[in-house]
Design brief:
2 domains
């Protein structure tokens, strides 16, 4: 079937040229990228974590290629999940509904012959198919989160159904489609719209520290509405790339995934998250049990050891190699300490 992008154009725009060049580049060097990118990304993540916490481990990190590979894969997985969350919903609605012959024919009839009018209707079509359902669902979920948080999961499932039925009716009336078309749209769009809602409100979780820091209650409420709404509009723009083909959609999704990750703090917090997910550090421990021989010697006086030779309520910064790094004390006066791992008997961590 002919793609929407196959319609003749006078010349390639910068997006066309970039998509063509990047596609050729990745096809040519895909093997090398797959081989070197994950360990290089993992090494960069570890270096950022070490720099932030002002220490370096007691071993050569380059010797642990599997550790670098694991860190890189976790990082790529985080960005990849965000990218998939932006890419898949638009493709599902496009191929499941818009590309149906009767829908496609109705859209082409609805478009006017003049370029300005066609552009205006193109934006109207994107609003009906993507931006409208995504945005209205986001506003509803934000309201539920603020006023009825206990019912958020139910709203996440039910709100997209109601929104898709509403916009399905609007699409049916606008394009003058058969009566049952709105059910077809609701069937195709329900899960994608719900998926976009999940992605949008995962951004809220990553920006929770920023939102909690807003002292003005009205501004905090506005942030709860605008942050997921911005993610939904980004998902709608990614969906617009579906009209140009899969390559366009992938480029749009990757760009907006990186943009959302940057502005929401996902990229900045990725080293901490990767180290925590690998179980190497950046987590709270109920206690660190030390060998009795260490306490019977001459431990530093500033070390808050209990009579059982334990450290309580410890932030584990790093727990691999010959030297472990911990952070003790309250938030106003923290102390970072390093202990030889041979004296660490056990690290007790809550599973909650």
């Amino acid at each position: 079937m002919e793609r929407w992008s196959d319609r003749p154009a006078p010349e390639q725009d910068p997006i066309d040229r970039f998509a063509a060049i990047s596609s050729v580049f990745f096809k040519r060097y895909s093997a090398q990228i797959a081989k070197f990118a994950p360990p290089a990304a993992g090494f960069a993540l570890f270096l950022l974590y070490f720099h932030t916490n002002h220490f370096y481990p007691s071993f050569d990190l380059l010797q642990f290629s599997s550790l670098l590979l694991g860190a890189g894969m976790v990082g790529f997985l985080i960005i990849g999940l965000l990218m998939v969350g932006l890419l898949v919903p638009g493709l599902v609605i496009f191929h499941g509904f818009i590309e149906r012959p009767e829908i496609r024919a109705a859209i082409l009839r609805w478009f006017g012959p003049h370029e300005v009018r066609e552009l205006r209707k193109a934006f109207g079509l994107l609003s009906l198919m993507y931006a409208g359902p995504y945005s209205l669902t986001s506003i509803i979920l934000s309201s539920i989160l603020l006023h009825f948080p206990a019912h958020y999961i139910e709203a996440l499932i039910l709100a997209p159904i109601a929104v898709c039925l509403l916009f399905g009716i609007a699409i049916q009336l606008t394009l003058k489609l058969p009566r049952s078309t709105f059910l077809r749209f609701a069937y195709c769009a329900w899960v994608p719209v719900m998926m976009v809602g999940i992605v949008a409100f995962s951004v809220i979780a990553n920006t929770a520290q920023f939102i909690d820091g807003i002292e003005n209650g009205d501004l905090k409420t506005l942030a709860v509405y605008l942050i997921p709404l911005g993610a939904c509009l980004a998902a709608a723009m990614c969906a617009a790339g579906s009209f140009g083909g899969f390559t366009y959609a992938v480029h749009f999704a990757l760009f907006f995934a990186l943009a959302i990750a940057f502005y929401s703090g996902v990229l900045a917090g990725m080293p901490d998250r990767v180290v925590r997910n690998l179980g190497l550090g950046n987590y709270e421990a109920q206690s660190v049990v030390l060998e009795k021989g260490y306490c019977d010697g001459a431990p530093p006086k500033d070390l808050p050891l209990t009579s059982e030779c334990e450290l309580r309520n410890v932030q584990v910064v790093w727990s691999m190699g010959d030297v472990f790094t911990f952070r003790v004390g309250n938030a106003k006066d923290p102390h970072q300490i390093q202990l030889p791992s041979r004296f660490v008997k056990a690290i007790v961590r809550s599973t909650n």
